[in-house]
């Protein structure tokens, strides 16, 4: 008994006296980081959700102006051109004048900040990206809102770090990544995709640790809850539930994936070429930059009148395509047309994303491919809509190189968590 007491006494003396206080301090630190992550998620969700509502408001107001009294003063086509050119001008001017880092999707800026090679000037990025994005997307240009929301979400993460005077570099990194996840989760009503986007697509920059992963999860879930409270819990894209395909037809899904894999490589190269082309045109001179952007926005105002399928982010186009409202030939023409319009808009440096236009491209070609397979092999009972859904995920995976994120994104956006029994 005496020996056991001596051993216990020696063991207790070997333990540092402040070990328990350090443990409690670390635990409190973890809780504080998670609490800040929740704040980041809520703010990112609010900004992303109201950004979507603001873009819809601008788009609807643009339509009201066209059908209202303005057409009594000038022809309809001229009014469409002037209104869209003016909206685009707002976006281009704010970006070039106040925050050049807000051009494009903004996701590379967040990745650079996670590598500590790019500053996050949240005080200018947030208003410029929000208002400039309203103008660019509201003009009818082929841009998505997910890029802006990811950048604004990351900016919110850095803002919270500065407001609460967070000095620890790992904590600041975690909050930045958490904001990016929250921005994507709220943009597409897809919390799992928002989490996986940071863990997979940003894997070279993300610092994997237990606390950082938990921060990303909490922020994405918090942002999505905010989105659902404001916008409801319905899926972003309404599509029918499809039966499981026959095993013999899986070969065609493999072929579709190979085609999109090759196209994804080409598409990424075309994006780089288009960006270089616009730089050669305006040479980053403000008057040439604004003139180029305004003319481009005005042209999309005209396109909106006569071929609306070639304008906008494309999320609204996906349900009509998947419901079989277009023939194979029209689908392929729209696919080629939207490739051009996507390259023009995104390459110009307008404040907008490219994920939504890519999902639309995947749907167009996927459904056209499904119609071709259905006509050639009627005995397989193939539903072309399944190829449309597969095409969305395939093109996203091929271009972004994040296959798991693409799968989760399509599942959550379309609410296709299951297939009905055959």
UniProtKB/TrEMBL annotation:
One of its GO terms (molecular function) is voltage-gated chloride channel activity. It is found in: Membrane. The chain crosses the membrane at residues 29-53, 73-95, 122-143, 175-199, 211-230, 250-268, 289-307, 327-346, 358-377, 389-411. Keywords: Chloride, Ion transport, Membrane, Transmembrane, Transmembrane helix, Transport. One of its GO terms (cellular component) is plasma membrane. This is H(+)/Cl(-) exchange transporter ClcA. It is a multi-pass membrane protein. It comes from the Bacteria. Pfam families: Voltage_CLC.
């Amino acid at each position: 008994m005496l020996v056991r007491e001596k051993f216990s006494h020696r063991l207790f003396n070997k333990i540092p006296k402040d070990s328990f206080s350090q443990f409690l301090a670390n635990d409190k630190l973890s809780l504080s980081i998670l609490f800040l992550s929740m704040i980041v998620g809520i703010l990112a969700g609010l900004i992303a959700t109201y950004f979507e509502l603001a873009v819809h408001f601008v788009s609807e107001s643009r339509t009201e102006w066209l059908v209202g009294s303005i057409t009594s003063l000038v022809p309809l086509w001229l009014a469409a051109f002037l209104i869209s050119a003016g909206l685009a001008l707002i976006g281009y001017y704010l970006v070039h004048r106040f925050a050049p880092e807000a051009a494009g999707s903004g996701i590379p800026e967040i990745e650079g900040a996670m590598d500590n090679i790019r500053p996050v000037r949240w005080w200018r990025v947030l208003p410029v990206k929000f208002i400039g994005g309203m103008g660019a997307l509201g003009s009818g240009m082929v841009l998505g809102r997910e890029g802006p929301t990811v950048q604004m979400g990351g900016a919110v993460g850095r803002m919270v770090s500065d407001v609460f005077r967070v000095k620890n570099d790992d904590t600041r990194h975690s909050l930045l990544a958490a904001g990016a996840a929250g921005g994507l989760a709220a943009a597409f009503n897809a919390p799992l995709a928002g989490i996986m986007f940071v863990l997979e697509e940003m894997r070279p920059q993300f610092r994997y640790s237990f606390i950082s992963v938990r921060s990303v999860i909490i922020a994405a879930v918090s942002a999505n809850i905010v989105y659902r409270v404001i916008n409801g819990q319905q899926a972003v894209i309404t599509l029918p539930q499809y039966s499981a395909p026959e095993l013999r037809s899986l070969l065609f899904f493999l072929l579709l994936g190979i085609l999109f894999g090759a196209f994804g490589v080409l598409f990424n190269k075309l994006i780089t070429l288009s960006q270089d082309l616009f730089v050669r045109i305006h040479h980053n001179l403000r008057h040439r930059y604004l003139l180029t952007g305004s003319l481009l926005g005005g042209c999309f105002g005209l396109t909106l009148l006569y071929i609306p399928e070639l304008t906008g982010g494309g999320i609204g186009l996906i349900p009509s395509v998947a419901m079989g409202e277009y023939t194979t030939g029209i689908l392929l023409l729209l696919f080629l047309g939207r490739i051009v319009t996507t390259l023009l808009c995104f390459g110009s440096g307008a404040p907008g994303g490219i994920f939504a236009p890519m999902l639309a491209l995947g749907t167009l070609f996927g459904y056209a491919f499904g119609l071709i397979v259905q006509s050639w092999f009627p005995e397989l009972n193939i539903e072309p809509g399944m190829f449309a859904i597969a095409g969305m995920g395939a093109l996203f995976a091929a271009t972004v190189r994040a296959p798991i994120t693409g799968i989760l994104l399509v599942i959550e956006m379309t609410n296709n968590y299951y297939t009905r029994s055959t």
